[in-house]
């Protein structure tokens, strides 16, 4: 879905910029580029981060292929406006010619306007739902039970909404008002705690200069050992942890969590 959407957005951009340049309307030609770059970076690339690291080779290939394809064509579109930046992007994503300025101008291959409009509505729903979360005082890493919305979407788009808002279920109702179930069960609280651990580990990896693929061992001091044991697979998968061991001694990094108790950890290369 993401690949189909970003390809549609690219072809829409190509059509708009080409028509505007043919009319010598430089302002109308350049303005949509900024909107596209925002869509590419804050939605497509951000939502594709896990795909780039997927253990499924076909998923990794698809994300990398479409990212490179889009950036190559985007570099060509950028060339008349920001030639040096365009040259840098083109070279970094495997442009075949000596210079981006030797490339033929890309042509729009047509696009499905419905998927563009649907994704725009999805992002609007996500923004509204996140505002509800903020008003309720729940950080995004804390899973919630459900979200009820009025707009009807495909199952794949509903899953994107659920993932962005971090709710277990997204349902469509006749009620015009969006409703977010903010009741926290013990299970949801535990998962929220685990997500805090994962985020803290990722931050620790960055601070220690580890590469994304570098394996580590985790030593943790916590009063929630049973929760860590139950969600060990969830903790290990995105953090490249080989094994988890426990210590009675306070460790190097603190996990910022709500409620009682303190959880600290260290990572060993």
Compile the SSE list and pairings.
Blueprint: H1 2-22, H2 26-47, H3 49-52, H4 57-78, H5 83-92, H6 113-136, E1 144-149, H7 155-165, E2 167-172, E3 179-181, H8 186-207, E4 216-221, H9 225-230, H10 232-239, E5 241-246, E6 253-255, E7 263-268
Parallel strand pairs: 1-2, 4-5
Antiparallel strand pairs: 1-3, 4-7, 6-7
Helix pairs in contact: 1-2, 1-4, 1-6, 4-5, 6-7, 8-10
Brief summary:
The chain has three domains: 110 residues, Isoleucyl-tRNA Synthetase, Domain 1 (Orthogonal Bundle), CATH 1.10.730.10; 68 residues; 83 residues, hypothetical protein PF0899 fold. It has ten helices and seven strands.
Structural overview:
This protein has 269 residues and is α/β, with parallel strands linked by helices. It folds into three domains: 2-111, Isoleucyl-tRNA Synthetase, Domain 1, CATH 1.10.730; 114-181; 186-268, 2-Layer Sandwich (hypothetical protein PF0899 fold), CATH 3.30.2320. It is 56% helix and 13% strand. The strands form two sheets. The chain has a four-stranded mixed sheet, with helices on one face. It has a three-stranded mixed sheet with strand order 2-1-3, with helices on one face. A hairpin with a 7-residue loop joins strand 6 and strand 7 (263-268). Helix 1 crosses helix 6 and helix 6 runs parallel beside helix 7. The longest helix is centred in the middle third of the chain and has 24 residues, at 113-136. The chain is globular. The two termini are 37 Å apart.
């Amino acid at each position: 879905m993401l690949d189909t959407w970003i390809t549609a957005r690219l072809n829409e951009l190509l059509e708009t910029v080409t028509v505007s340049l043919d009319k010598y309307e430089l302002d109308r030609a350049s303005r949509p580029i900024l909107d596209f770059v925002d869509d590419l970076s804050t939605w497509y690339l951000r939502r594709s981060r896990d795909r780039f690291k997927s253990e499924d080779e076909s998923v990794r290939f698809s994300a990398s292929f479409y990212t490179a394809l889009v950036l190559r064509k985007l570099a060509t579109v950028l060339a008349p406006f920001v030639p040096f930046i365009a040259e840098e992007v083109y070279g970094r994503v495997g442009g075949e010619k000596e210079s981006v300025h030797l490339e033929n101008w890309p042509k729009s291959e047509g696009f499905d306007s419905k998927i563009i409009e649907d994704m725009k509505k999805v992002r609007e729903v996500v923004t509204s739902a996140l505002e509800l979360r903020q008003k309720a005082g729940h950080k995004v890493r804390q899973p919630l039970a459900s979200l009820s919305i009025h707009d009807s979407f495909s199952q794949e788009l509903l899953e994107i909404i659920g993932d962005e808002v971090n709710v277990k279920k997204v349902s469509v109702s006749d009620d015009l008002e969006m409703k977010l179930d903010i009741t926290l069960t013990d299970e949801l609280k535990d998962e929220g705690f685990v997500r805090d651990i994962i985020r803290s580990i990722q931050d620790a990896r960055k601070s220690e200069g580890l590469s994304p693929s570098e394996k580590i061992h985790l030593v943790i001091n916590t009063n929630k050992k049973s929760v860590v044991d139950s969600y060990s697979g969830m903790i290990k998968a995105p953090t490249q942890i080989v094994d988890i061991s426990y210590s009675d001694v306070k460790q190097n990094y603190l996990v910022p969590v709500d409620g009682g108790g303190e959880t600290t950890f260290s990572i060993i290369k």
